[in-house]
Automatic annotation (TrEMBL):
Pfam families: MST. Coiled coil: none annotated. It comes from the Bacteria. Residues 1-21 are annotated as: Disordered. This is DinB family protein.
Length: 182
């Protein structure tokens, strides 16, 4: 970006909205801080790109793209917090009977598709945050009888999911415009 001291990075270190301070709180605060930071990292790695760049796929035959990651993570948020933890019977955001990977295969270079993906992702993140806020403890058990799991485990899994996919996003973004993560 023009005017940046470090144009090869997502954002100049002094303007990075992610906190580098150690969280000296309880378990819930620590987990939520890490998850918040990874969610913000995903947004940073996708910022300033065109729909074409966001839909750029990694290497054939992979369908992996930044836009696909946004769609995938919206579906992951929905699956864990709505379907598993809350026991809601909601249709998948992108998965279909014919295409289990529609979150990636349907990630096309279209402004409306990009806006829709970000809107769904933000909606699912807000739902997840509200769900965790309402939970009395991290021992809260899921309401999906096929998937007995505690909220604590879901939060750890979400951190792992975002960390892995933010690593993918690093490589995708570097291929698109040479910018590297921090």
């Amino acid at each position: 970006m023009a005017g940046q001291k470090y144009p090869d990075m997502w954002v100049d270190p002094e303007e990075d909205p992610r906190s580098q301070d150690a969280v000296l709180g309880d378990e819930r605060s620590t987990l939520l801080d890490y998850l918040r930071s990874y969610r913000l990292t995903l947004e940073l790695k996708c910022s300033g790109l065109t729909p074409e760049q966001l839909a750029t796929r990694s290497v054939p035959p992979s369908t992996l793209s930044l836009l696909g990651l946004v769609r995938h993570l919206a579906q992951v948020e929905q699956s864990w917090f709505r379907r598993v933890m809350a026991g809601e019977d909601v249709p998948y955001l992108y998965r279909t009977a014919d295409d289990r990977d529609a979150d990636f295969t349907g990630a096309v270079a279209d402004e409306a598709a990009v806006q829709e993906a970000w809107a769904r992702w933000r909606e699912e993140v807000a739902n997840a945050e509200a769900f965790v806020e309402r939970a009395e403890s991290l021992e809260l058990m899921s309401l999906d009888p096929k998937n007995p799991i505690q909220l604590r485990e879901v939060l750890v899994h979400m951190i792992e999911e975002y960390a892995r996919h933010c690593g993918h996003a690093d490589l995708l973004r570097e291929c698109i415009d040479g910018r590297t993560g921090q």
